[in-house]
Design brief:
CATH topology: Rossmann fold
Helix content: 25-40%
Number of domains: 1
Largest sheet: 8 strands, mixed
Number of strands: 11
Order of helices and strands: EEEHEHEHHHEEEHEHEE
Number of helices: 7
Structural class: alpha/beta
Strand order of the largest sheet: 6-7-5-4-8-9-11-10
Radius of gyration: 16 Å
Oligomer: single chain
CATH superfamily: Vaccinia Virus protein VP39
CATH architecture: 3-Layer(aba) Sandwich
C-alpha cells in the first residue's frame, strides 16, 4: 500500500495510507498523542519496577522510542515486545522527524530500534531491551506476560479483524495481575468487549483532539 509522509499539528510526522484512508497517528499531534495514551496513561501508570511492555503494532517505532527514553530517564529496566506484520521500509522511517523532536542522541536510539534484528531480543540501551516479532497478531504468538499493553491497531472501521473478541481474550490471557492496557479508541462496543473478557475498563481523558480513551486493568 502507498505510504505518504504527513506533518501533524504538533510538528511531528505521521504516515497516511490512502487505500485505507487511515493515518498511523493522530493528525492533531503524533508525539503528543503517543505520550499521553501510552506513556502517561499506561507505562507511567503501571507500578511494576521492571515492566514487560507489549505493543500491538510496531508501526513507525514512535511508541518504542518514547518508552525507551522514559525507561532511561527513570532508570527502569524494561522489556519491550512488539509485533508487526508489515514493517515500514528503511527509507520511510529514516524520513520521520521523531528524533529531532525528542531530545539529544535520539537519532542513534531511533536507528537502533528500527535496525534491530527481528524475532530476537536486542539490548538497545542499559534499561531497554527490544524484542520485535514479525508476525500477525491473529497467529497468537507466544509472548511473556505483559504488565503494560499498548493496543495501537488501526481503527475498528478500517481494520476490524484486529478488534475481535478472540484477540481481546488473547490479550487478557497475556496480561499480568494488575496489568494495564490502553488504546486511543473509546467506542462503546470496544469498551464492552474489553469488559466481557475480564478487564476493568475506565474512560479517561484523551489526547488533544480526542475527548476520551480507554484503559483496562486486569
Amino acid at each position: 500500500m502507498t505510504h505518504i509522509l504527513q506533518q501533524t499539528l504538533d510538528g511531528s510526522h505521521t504516515i497516511y495510507i490512502p487505500e485505507m484512508d487511515e493515518h498511523y497517528h493522530s493528525t492533531n499531534g503524533a508525539v503528543q498523542e503517543a505520550r499521553h495514551i501510552y506513556i502517561s496513561k499506561a507505562y507511567n501508570f503501571s507500578q511494576v519496577s521492571q515492566p514487560v511492555v507489549f505493543e500491538v503494532g510496531f508501526g513507525t517505532g514512535l511508541n518504542a522510542l518514547l518508552t525507551a527514553l522514559e525507561a532511561e530517564r527513570l532508570r527502569r529496566n524494561t522489556l519491550y515486545v512488539s509485533i508487526e506484520k508489515y514493517p515500514i521500509g528503511n527509507e520511510e522511517w529514516q524520513m520521520l522527524n521523531y528524533p529531532q523532536l525528542s531530545g539529544n542522541k535520539c537519532d542513534t536510539l531511533f536507528f537502533s530500534l528500527h535496525s534491530a534484528e527481528w524475532n530476537k531480543k536486542i539490548s538497545i540501551s542499559p534499561f531497554f531491551t527490544l524484542w520485535k516479532i514479525h508476525v500477525d497478531i491473529s497467529d497468537f504468538p507466544q509472548i511473556p506476560m505483559a504488565d503494560v499493553i499498548y493496543f495501537d491497531a488501526f481503527a475498528p472501521n478500517k481494520q476490524s479483524s484486529m478488534w475481535t473478541m478472540e484477540i481481546f481474550e488473547y490479550l487478557f490471557a497475556h496480561t499480568s495481575h494488575n496489568g494495564v492496557l490502553t488504546t486511543y479508541c473509546a467506542k462503546g462496543d470496544v469498551r464492552r468487549s474489553l469488559q466481557s473478557v475480564g478487564y476493568h475498563v475506565e474512560r479517561t481523558d484523551g489526547p488533544p483532539g480526542k475527548r476520551e480513551m480507554l484503559r483496562g486493568i486486569k
